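It is worth pausing here to work through a concrete case rather than discussing structure prediction in the abstract. The textbook approach is simple: state the sequence, then state the predicted structure, then interpret. We follow exactly that order.
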Amino acid sequence: MDVVHGGSGRRRVARRATMGLIDQSVSSLTNFGVGLVLARTVSARDFGVFSIVIATYTILVGLGRALNVEAFTARLSWSSQDSWAGGVRSATGATLVVGCVAGLGMILLGLRSSVVLSGPLVALGFTLPGLLLQDAWRHAFFAQGRGSKALINDLSWAGLLLAGFGLLLAAGKGGITWLVLAWGIAATGAAFIGIFQSSVVPHMGHSVSWWKEHQDLAGRYFAEFLAMTGALQLSYYVVAAFEGLHATGALRGAQLLLGPFNVLFMAAGLVAVPEAIKARKAGTSILRPCLFLSLALASSALMWGFLVRSFPDALGIALLGSSWAGAQAVVFPWATAMAGLGVWVGALTGLRAVAAAKASLRAQLLVSPMILIGAAMGVAVGGAVSAAWGLSAAFWIGGVIWWRTLLKAPWDAGTAAELAPPEMTTGALEHLDTL
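Step two, the predicted structure:
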């Protein structure tokens, strides 16, 4: 394994990490570009609607990851080609089932929503299976060290999206519903390309057996997701309820301005867990790399937030148009919140690498109420800015809780029992790569 070959192993790890950074840069720049197009072509109210759509998408893509992708990563990272292909076939099929069910729900919700939200939610619902499948391909490729394929897939999404936006704007159809639809259709096109890249066709009929086989991890990861990402994204709805869509748009604008940090954050999610699993399999301690990851993410968020807060108004307006004023006020407290979130990512990576699903679920159940309380108390005191500071306090307290959980987690080989499906014997753990 790489970790036992000294400098050459570290170079290979560095190359894979760099590929993850490049791939996430493409993905984040694509989303950043979508946000910029919308900020400059739609009203501040519609930009707030877009933030609700993105929050909803984030919740649903996290659902797909929790039920399917994370268990796949924990058990089949760096497995044989046959094991990887079989796992991908089932995991992506299960992802499509989640996308179809959730997409139908979004369509029904959109049809019953206000005129402002109806069209964008219906557009999201129609394209949700493709959006979730594209995300699953990215994680599957990185789980086997094939980051270049994930990069090609994301470049395909970006190219299709650029063509779609260009056609819509040229035709004078720059409304938010059309733009959301083009965004989702482009992702669906990239998802089909992923099938050709992997030579694996998703099998939706394997979904139930996949969930049964991995229910010991997937069930806990699902509950953890509901507590973690659900609480974070629901904070947007709390802000919207108290302060309206303009305040929600300010938070979304601040997120766009924190794009470079988001690249690091999401790249860590793609690369760090598979790499930590590879190191664990080689008997190498992962505690120090996890600490380094936390420090790197937190310091990057704070530095970038301070820099963006200092942008001249002319540059801010050029980037976000009328949404700049609200985003500028929110960006540094939001960066501080993301720094706190970065602190717990390192600890979460360690817990994922040893499949300590029980421990991570307990930690998240403690932290999640703090997120909603922080957002609610903050927005009640002083609008979007105070809401961001409330979230910051919650995330930093959460970082302490996550690291306390990681340090108390079992670090002996016995923890690896959670990496195998329940029906496997202890001896079968030695042959995990050939399942």
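Step three, interpretation. The CA atoms of residues 96 and 396 lie 35 Å apart. DSSP finds 14 helices and no strands in the chain.
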